[in-house]
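Running this now, will post back.
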Amino acid sequence: MKPNLVANKACAARVRKREQEMLKSRIKNVKPQIDTRPPDSMALDHVRNNLKREQLLEERYHAIDRDNRILLQKMSDIMKTPSVKSGLGAQSSPAINTRDARKAELSRITQENLAILKRIQQAQPVYNHVEWDDSYRRSLTYLKNSCEYPLTLTKKKVPTRSSSLTPLSGKANKGMATTTGSLGALAPGEVGQESAGDDLRYVLKEGKDINGVFYLCEMATDGRSLAITAYDAEQKTTLELLVNEKNHRRLYRDHNGDYRAIAAKLCLDGEQLYINHDGMLPDGKPERAA
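Update: finished.
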């Protein structure tokens, strides 16, 4: 690169400085080729102001003010009206009348619900499972009599919930045929119970107050006998009662198949559970009113 030869360095420096200042001035004052300024129409009033929106807001504010004045006038009239009836001295407040009406309506609905619940609880069953069991046994007897070879039917085992109530077999069945509901108590762990016998079907599970003590009562039947248990959660004790087929049919007939009515007659004689029904009381025990 050739050196920049000048005659006078001081003069050359002043020239370069002046040229740089002129360049900065031209860059500073440069003008764009595209006009980015806002158009002149933006200065017009109808463009800068939305008159329609302002009109709608003003009308809305007028409507709100009118409603507020009407509401204030109504409140003023209510406050000026006397709230005590002449000669009675009782307040006639709309709030009190509304509250009384709500209470009366709630009482009416409660009474109707109780009446519906009572009708549901007192409704008698349409199907009689005891008659079904009798018909099944008769049909099975006819089938055995008509078969040329011994009848062998496989019975499907349905898993049931664990319970201390199971049908008795052997000697226990013989005693069951002559035992009444008061003397046929089934002790826990009694010898002679079947481990895989007929399945029980629960017909009642509810809490009962027996002689002032709350028990959890369960009733189960295998189609013939009726097994009843009463569990005391506080004392951790269980009372059991077995009703034979004859007395079970009698109870079912006398109470129209309502096991709740049968459970209502459960009583205690010491540690013995019995049914307060005619012919099913322990010796020397008078019959109580149902």
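The CA atoms of residues 172 and 191 lie 9 Å apart. More later if anyone needs it.
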